[in-house]
Design a protein that fits this description.
Blueprint (H helix, E strand, L loop, with lengths): L4 E2 L3 E5 L4 E6 L5 E6 L9 E3 L2 E5 L4 E6 L5 E6 L7 E3 L10 E3 L10 E3 L2 E5 L4 E6 L5 E6 L9 E3 L2 E5 L4 E6 L5 E6 L17 E3 L2 E5 L4 E6 L5 E6 L10 E3 L2 E5 L5 E6 L5 E6 L10 E3 L2 E6 L3 E6 L4 E7 L1 H6 L12 H4 L5 H12 L9 E3 L2 E5 L5 E4 L1
């Protein structure tokens, strides 16, 4: 579920088997692996010979990029998934339930001698890159698993408390906050998992309230909003040449909007297989992962799919959970409204080699991870 970080000769990626891997970029051969005590669904950041990443074991790590040796680690007390009662309408309604769709940990960004990330303990952290010393932390009202973006000395990030924050990246002082939607009953339409993109003085991000937002980066005022009719926006947007691109979850739509106005340019429907991956754009093509275990290539000028790559697990297990029309067979995946059955259903869907990892394009190769346990390099 981790997305790769690619340098001139190495691909770094985390795995749910508790290891961070360093792979030879050309051959895929393992150079080293570093063990933590839980899943690594944070995507690594590489800077000045150091790899930074978080683990569900409650630690944030800095590891030597060449040798795979620990430089330092920082304990984050209370790392956990988003929890709520009556979650997504499941029962028992009074139970406090961890959200099985809270797949990702916040991924770090390195800027001006510090590394920044959010945490399930509700804080946003800034650590000194050299020693892991705490520079500042900022408390929100709930889990922060979105990844921060920094532009013009301001850090932008959303929280599951329904607010999107702009902080001074040097001091951690709040500049403004923006309120998104709430859902006090089933907690389905609330929370920000999407990480932000900043371009031309505008901050773009998606939300589980089913809206995609464009805010003024200085004031936090809403420029425009695009409603996705009940479907979450989990992945992060890509902005290029006056257009913003993003995908939705269970409606499986890929949208291209005018970045200034939010007007729709085109949309593509990928048959209701959820899209949690974030698009990567190279040349005239956008690349995007699907829960169906497929990497989708979309030609932006012709506004049409170009090709599809299918993971090994998708070929093997996908037919059992797919209807004749290509849509997911939710009737055999989610058999009951009891919470445990929802968790089991999520795991069933992952067995089709779901691509929740976001692709990275480097040179003439696309790198991406899959829930089938493989890292793929595609030409």
């Amino acid at each position: 579920m981790s997305s790769p970080a690619v340098t001139s000769d190495t691909v770094y990626i985390g795995s749910s088997d508790h290891f961070l891997y360093a792979l030879d970029r050309n051959s895929g051969a393992q150079r080293w692996k570093f063990k933590t005590e839980s899943r690594i669904t944070s995507s690594p950041a590489v800077s000045n010979g150091v790899v930074y990443f978080g683990s569900f074991d409650g630690n944030f790590y800095a590891v030597d990029a060449a040798k795979g040796e620990l430089k330092w680690k920082f304990a984050v007390p209370g790392e956990h998934r988003f929890t709520a009662t009556h979650l997504h309408g499941t029962v028992p309604a009074a139970d406090t339930m961890p959200d099985p769709f809270d797949f990702f940990l916040s991924s770090p960004v390195v800027w001006n001698g510090a590394v920044y990330f959010g945490s399930g303990d509700t804080n946003i952290y800034a650590l000194d890159v050299a020693e892991g010393r705490l520079k500042w932390k900022f408390k929100t009202g709930d889990v922060v698993h979105a990844s921060p973006a920094i532009s013009g000395g301001t850090l932008f990030v959303g929280s599951w408390d329904s607010y999107f924050y702009a902080l001074d990246a040097t001091s951690g002082t709040e500049k403004w906050r923006f309120k998104t939607g709430e859902d006090p009953d089933t907690h389905n339409q609330v929370g920000i998992q999407s990480s932000a993109a900043v371009a031309d003085g505008v901050v773009y991000f998606g939300c589980r309230d089913s809206n995609f937002y464009a805010l003024d980066a200085v004031s936090g005022k809403q420029r425009w909003v695009f409603n996705n009719k009940g479907s979450w926006v989990i992945g992060s947007p890509a902005v290029e040449q006056g257009k913003v691109y993003f995908a939705t979850s269970d409606t499986a739509m890929f949208h291209a909007l005018d970045a200034k106005t939010g007007a729709s340019i085109f949309s593509l429907n990928f048959k209701q297989w959820p899209l949690f991956s974030s698009p990567a754009i190279a040349g005239d093509t956008a690349y995007l992962g699907s829960h169906q275990g497929r990497l989708l290539a979309i030609k932006l000028k012709s506004q049409k799919p170009a090709w599809t790559f299918e993971t090994e697990a998708s070929k093997k297990n996908g037919p059992a959970y797919t209807n004749a029309d290509g849509t997911p067979n939710y009737e055999i995946v989610f058999t009951d409204s009891f919470y445990d059955d929802m968790v089991a259903g999520v795991q069933k869907l992952l067995t089709v080699g779901a691509i929740l990892s976001s692709p990275v394009v480097a040179g003439d190769t696309i790198y991406v991870g899959s829930a089938d346990g493989n890292v793929y390099a595609l030409m």
